[in-house]
Every structure is written in C-alpha cells, then in structure tokens.
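Morning - manganese (II) ion inputs below, output right after.
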Amino acid sequence: MDTLAQLPKYNLNEEQEKKLILREYRALLRALKTKLKPGDKRLIRTAFEMSVDAHKTMRRKSGEPYILHPIAVARICVEEIGLGVRSTICALLHDTVEDTDISLEDVEREFGNEIARIVDGLTKISNVIDVNASQQAENFKKILLTLTDDPRVILIKLADRLHNMRTLDHMKSDKQLKISSETVYVYAPLAHRMGLYNIKTEMEDLAMKYLEPDSYKEIARKLAETKKERTRYINEFIKPLRDELEKADLKFEIYGRPKHIHSIQNKMKKKGVSFEEVYDLFAIRIILDSAPENEKSDCWKVYSIITDEYTPAPERLRDWLSNPKSNGYEALHTTVMGPQGKWVEVQIRTKRMNEIAEKGLAAHWKYKEGSADENRFDKWFQQIREVIGNQDTDSVDFLQDFKTSFLAEEIYVYTPKGDVKMLPVGSTALDFAFAIHSAVGSKTIGAKLNHKLVPISHKLRSGDQVEIITSNKQKPTEDWLNFVVTSKAKGRIRDALKEEKRKIADEGKYTVQRKIEGMGGAFNQHNIDELWSYYKLSSALDLFYQVAIKNIDLKELKDFKVFGDKIEAPKPVKVHEVKLDGHPHHHHPLGKKDTELIIFGESSDKIVYNLANCCKPIPGDDVFGFVTTGKGLTIHRTNCPNAAKLMANFGHRIVKTKWAKNKEISFLTGLKIVGLDDVGVVNKITNLISGELRINIAALTIEAKEGVFEGNIKLYVHDKEELDELVSRLLGLPGIEKVDRYDTEL
Ligand code: MN
C-alpha cells in the first residue's frame, strides 16, 4: 500500500468535480441517517452550502477542490468517532473562519452559540498552529486549554489531523516530517487517551511511513511474507474455541487481531529484539453479542472456556470489566499458551464495549447522563483543568508533564480503605500521597505497601495497597521532583520549594541591601537587576537565595562602578571557547537550513558540533543535527529517545546531517553483554576487543549472579561498521547470549 511513489494525478473537469463533491456529501448524510431529527438535514445543508461557497476558489495541494477536506473531516467525525449532527456542522465549517470571509458572527447567527463556540475553538487551534510556530509546545498548551471547553473541539481536531495525515503525500518533505512528528508526539497519544484506538494506530503508522520510511517498508514487507503462516496458526488456535463457544450457545465473532507496523516496531525497540521475535506474538479478539445484564458473566464464561483449552499465564490477566480504564475501555484480557508453545493474547469484550474501544467514550458521552462512564470521563477533564489552571512552568515541561500524567497507561492502586486511585504508569508512593491530598503529600516520609515498609520513591504496580506514613516535621526537597511523575505532585512540590526558597531568600535580601548601600548605591530595581544579571542568574529572588546560602559572596562588587546612586557592572571579559578533546571545533556560521551538512572528515567542514549525550551517536548511525543556542549543532541519532520530542517541539531547529568517513577520530559508545558465567569470560571478551580487533576499551564492569553475567563495556570505535563487526564477533563467543548497544547516557 505504499503510495509514496505513484500519486494519482488530479484532473477532473468542472462537471465531474461537482459530481464528486455531491457524492461525498451524500455519503456523509447516509452515515448520519440514524441520528437525524426533523430540521437537522436543513441545518447540515446550510453548513455545507456555506462552506462550499466560502472555499469555492481554494484548492488543496493535491489539486482537489478544498471543500472535499471539510466533508472528509465530517465523515471521520461521524463514521469513525461516532459524533452527531452538531459536530458535523462544526467539521464542515472548521476551516471557514480561519481561511475565508466567513466570520464567527456569521456562524453564530446561522447556527447559534454552541456551534459558534466550537468553531471558535477550532479556529484558535489552527491559528496557533499555522503561524509557522517556533514554539510548538506553547501551541499544544493552547490546544489543551481549548480542549477543556468542549471535548468535541479536540475530537474534530483529531479528525482534521487524521485526514491531513491520510493526504500527506502531497506535502513537501520538510512539512511531512514536521506534521508527522507532531502527530506521534501529541495527537496520537491524545487519540489514545480519548479511547480512539483505531485512529491512534492509523496516525502512528502513517507518521512512521514518513519519519522512518526504511523500517516501515521493511516491517511491512516481512508482515506480508509471513501472513500465510500467521493466518494458519490463528485458525488452528481458534478452531477448538469456536466449537466450544458454539456449544455454550454464545453469539460471538472471533478473529485474529490485525498487526500494526508501528506497534511491532515499538516492541522491537523497547525490548531490543528482532522482528522474528515479535511477529509471532499473536492476538485474538472475541466480540460477544450479549444482553446488557449478561455482559460481565458472558465474558467470564468465555474466559473459562479458553482456559479449559489452553493454559493461561495468571499474571497476564487484565480485568477491565470491574475496573474500566479512565478512557472508558472495558474488556477482559488474558494470555494463554497456544499450540507450539506460543503465547497468544485473547481479548474478550461485548459489542457495546467494542464500540467504545473503537470510537472512544466520547461517542457515548452526553447522552448517557449520570452513568459511571460519564463520571470517569468528566473526572479526567476535571483533573486536566486543575493542572492547566495552576501551571506556571515553561511550556516544554508542561507538555512533558501532561504526557506522563494524562496520556500514559494507568495503574490502579488501593487505599487501606479499599478506594481505588488511578495513576499513570511509573507513579511512586509519593505520587500516590499527593493524589490523596497535597497536605498528605508534603508530609510523607514513607509508605506501607501491602503492609511492608517502602521508601517514598517506590514505584507502584496495579493492585498495590498503599498506606502513607506522614510526619509533621517533613517538608518537600529538591530531589522529590525526581521521585514523582504526576503533574499534580510536581506542581505542588515546586510550589512548596518556591515558598521555602522565598523564606531563605529573605535573609540574603538583607545582605544584598547592606552591601549595595555600603558602597553608596541605592537598594532599587535597577541596581538589583544589574547585580543578578552580572552573576548570570535568572531573577532577583535567585540572587537573594544564592547569597543567603552563601553560593555568592558578593566580593566582585568591588569591581562595580558607582554613579550617583546607580551601580554598574564591569564589562565582561571575553570568553574563549574550549576545544573539546577529540572533537574538532570549527567556527563558522551554520549552513542554510535544509541543506545537507556533511559532518566529520573533510577539512572543508565548517560546523561547530557536539555529540548528544543522550544517545552518543557514532559515524554510520542515522543522525540529525539540532541547533542549540550557543553550542552550535548537537548531533542526535534519529532513534534517540529524545528525537520525537525535539522534532515536534523545535522543528525549525532540525538540520539534516550525514557522516563522512574518517578513520582517525574515534567515538565513545557502550555495549551491554549478557551471557552464561564462566571463569574465562572477561578474558575472552577483552582479548577479542583489544587483542584481535584493537579497539580501545574505556571501562569494563562485569557482574555475575546465579550463573548469569552482565557486562558493561565502554569503548572507542570509529564508526558503526566497526561496532557492528564487534557485536557479531562477540555474539560468536561461546556462552554469550545477547549484546546490546546502550541507548541511554553512558
Ligand atoms: Mn482542516
């Protein structure tokens, strides 16, 4: 299905165009049919005509009439998200106020206040996105702010983004990269969080097609090659189940769950394994047609039938029937051992649950007043509102916090009384304490986990029962920020630290005042500003604080000049840039954006660069350059854990780079080796590395435990080729099981 190569040329005459538009419009009406009340058709017609007229002179990059885009977005809203008439009208109008002569007043006059407000929300979003945003994170913050007005704004925005992704082939390649990375960074997680699994996976697959075309094609090819074999296995697995389910008189569908390219790649990356080790993790889905009162018992009946046939892995049972996820997802998941000893995940859910799983809870939201689902959804929005309301951190941090707090998978943790708290994966006892109450959080000294004492940094798991232990003498410290992942806890800790800092700073303030007045200056804004900027601090508060804790002793004040009551800092001394060992630094302005830079090697290269610490690239890796303030270019691997974040937030600072050959410079990298413990193992490894291959080892640690050893080696290589050679030679040594390159800081 690779369409990159062959785009259909668009050439329709006016008559054909009209027909095409009408055909699409009728398909939209058909999809809405069951939801239309008297008068609705006329309203939609009005919106359609308004939009047709407003966009009549506009075309998309593909050459198509522009109106096809709002119609397609409306169809996604109806067919794939399950939204209704009002959202359809908004989708049809979503680009009018932004790009055409139609004003918000026109929309309000025609359709009333509710629709005008949503269109306004959508307009604000495209406004912040389209100004060629230098600070994407700031934009996302704004998007999230509008989200809390009315969730439909974000749902229609997701439909808009999905259609843009589906038609991305027509854009220029830098736009493709920017839009794709934004999509994986924010929109796909949002879609996931809203329970729109299908949209989420489609977004991720489409984005990957542009961001990592080679891996995408490779996995797609391998999937196609193994399709027959996989289908055969699934049929073999399903057959006995089908018979038993029929005997039990259940109405059901059973099928193999389709594999998504992006999620396969994700697994490969996360676990550091090959396609072959991932592709045969099979998944089966059973969809039941149950009467509402039998839903839960039917699902468990199916579970029992499955586990009679195949042995389950008890620790992999997930009961989202009793405790649905906060995005509304309900199902029963189990993993069983299928034929040939392969693990197969089975998802059991009813038709209703499946509807929610595919279209998200939003489709049900509103007309299921008072239901548990609505409460859960509202609770989530309530939490977001709270966080956005008291957030004064910078936007990039904010976005990161938001992602870990609201877009991550969840765990369920119990209070001693049995109340459930939902927390993002990775939450600690301290997060839990803050989730109970900030007053509890601030005084936490430890926790009892299932009656056993654990430190506040202890990571929680689903099902844990946690009791928080507090002390009135306790107060938050700086390192607490490393122990929490939720926005709420972070926000409260930062507030408390700021308060504490303010108290301490008060003492420093007095010292500063005495010193300035002692040299004849006034204690006024100008002089204070002069002082903190001289010490390269970020604020007056910071200055007072640093003085109070004696990091700064103000002895440089003697070099200041005094004019009247004004003091003036001495002119700064010129700082010379230090040459980093082994890293040639050439001073020259950066090349034009989008030009391909060749780094390393040729004497003609004139780039100031640094190798990123987070992923330690070496020649031969796929890399990109990131323009940093002051430090020139930082080179990251394209699969660096920070890459997506950088590209999404600072697309304009990304520069294409590639390596040139140079055998003289070597680069620090690291390997993790796992194998069977053996007396001679260190010898064999070092012999191979420094003896045979003559590669320099910087550090080597080996730990052995119960017959298995884990070795960490830091070494200098010239390029990826040399590293790959070393890895394959290491794997050839007897007893060595696994060799992985570090992805993180050395
Ligand atoms: Mn649009």
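Note: The two ends are 40 Å apart (CA to CA).

O.
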